[in-house]
Amino acid sequence: MTTPTSDSVTASRRLSPGRWTLRTRLVVALVALLAATVTVVGVLTVVALDRFLVDQLDDQLTAASNRVRVDAGRAPDTLRENGEFTMPGPLFPGTRGQASGTLAAIVLDGEVLRASSIDSDGSPTELPEDADEVLSTVPAFGEPQSIELPDGLGSYRVVGTPGPNGAVLVTGLPLKEVDETVQQVSLIIAVVALAGLVAAGAATAAIISISLRPLRRVAGTATQVAGMPLDSGEVALAVRVPDRDTDTHTEVGQVGSAINHMLENVAAALTARHQSEQRIRSFVADASHELRTPLASIRGYAELTRRSNSELPEETKNSLARIESESIRMTSLVEDLLLLARLDAGRPIEFVPVDLSALVVDCVSDAHVAGPDHRWDLRVPPEPVTVSGDSDRLHQVIANLLTNARVHTPPGSAVTITLQPGDEGATLQIRDNGPGIPPDLLPEVFERFSRADSSRSREAGSTGLGLAIVSAVVAAHHGTITVRSAPGDTEFTLTLPQPRPIER
């Protein structure tokens, strides 16, 4: 059994009527309808023509039969001698005065006594004995019928009439001319119908193509809008269906007008969303900026009070330590929010050549101190790898990725850091053998405040903004960050561009 290949499956799907375009469906439907109509008309025409020609031939056959009967009537009544039927001359006299191809025979008691036909030169010729079996079955009082004579004699239209002494006079005319005429007409109809179908198909395709131009323009507008980045930022949705395609008196115009109304609503919604985002970002930035000073004061006073020489209850000291710890955590959250607000606002980043190798080494060293119970495997090339970007922000990206690997893997886990130079930049891979990221969390792992385990994240001091900052900083550097995860194998891949030339 042969298994169908992917190419054959794809080809069959493309040929499936369900995947045809509207233009193709209309052309095929109209051509099929026209072909069915032409076929029915052609068949009926051929049948009517055949019937007409056969009727004409039957009229000629009746006249020929009458002449045969008259000739036979001139013969004497005593045609039997010694029990045998005798005729004057070697041939049946009914062939005299008949048209070329006329057949005449006399049948007595189921036996053909004489049978002859007229040649093209007008002379009678006796028919072979093989034809007797067919001619002997022709009734004396029947309607004209078609028979097929052996030995290549062809088809004949024959009729039987009563003759002298109980004999049956059989007269026939060839159907060759009728058959040839019907065949020629059938061929002409077929050729003309085929040519007409081809021309009609081409004309139909052209007319439908012209008729569908407004629909294609409407579809083009919809496709153009569908390709726009509408998920974030300020969107200038100025694309509209042309006025000529918005006439509500036509079906396409109704669709075009409805699309324009929809685009107006979408544009208004996007504008409102952008304004709301701007207000939220402004609020977050302002609030974060304003909270930095009081948080620093809270932390400073708590630390100063806790370290004073005055005797404080142990419970009070523990409370002050908690205030100091939480103020540090809140300060980190405020700094992260402020950084994201600045990145969202499109604050330009200073692009300078950065030694990524040195940054990776420093970050791995810090991670080793913070997580001595993990196994850190650093793989960097001997030559420095240089990229273009902000050194502090890139340091934060690498540190956040390493912190994420340390916090979300159990002690003893292995973390492999691989730095590789490329033609278009540098690639940094951070891989661990921890439990992995839950499948339902993986699509939104770079979203803000995305945390798999809230309680664990709080205990580790996580704000849920680490990977969101990574994504935002990498995007600001025109790089990419991807992740794949499975139990026992999680890998973050960071790609950064080559150093840009310094603009002067």
Account of the 3D structure:
The protein is an alpha+beta fold and 504 residues long. The chain has three domains: 77-176, Beta-Lactamase (2-Layer Sandwich), CATH 3.30.450; 227-347, Signal transduction histidine kinase, dimerisation/phosphotransfer (DHp) domain (Helix Hairpins, Orthogonal Bundle), CATH 1.10.287; 352-497, Heat Shock Protein 90 (2-Layer Sandwich). Helices cover 50% and strands 17% of the residues. It contains eleven helices and 15 strands. The chain has helices spanning 6-15, 22-73, 132-135, 176-211, 213-226, 251-306, 314-344, 356-370, 391-407, 454-459, 466-476; strands spanning 80-81, 84-85, 103-108, 111-118, 124-126, 145-149, 154-162, 168-174, 352-355, 375-379, 386-389, 414-421, 425-432, 480-486, 489-497. The strands form four sheets. The chain has a six-stranded antiparallel sheet. Helix 2 runs antiparallel to helix 4 and helix 9 runs antiparallel to helix 11 (466-476). The longest helix has 56 residues, at 251-306. The two termini are 70 Å apart. The model is unreliable at 76-83 and 454-460 (pLDDT under 50).
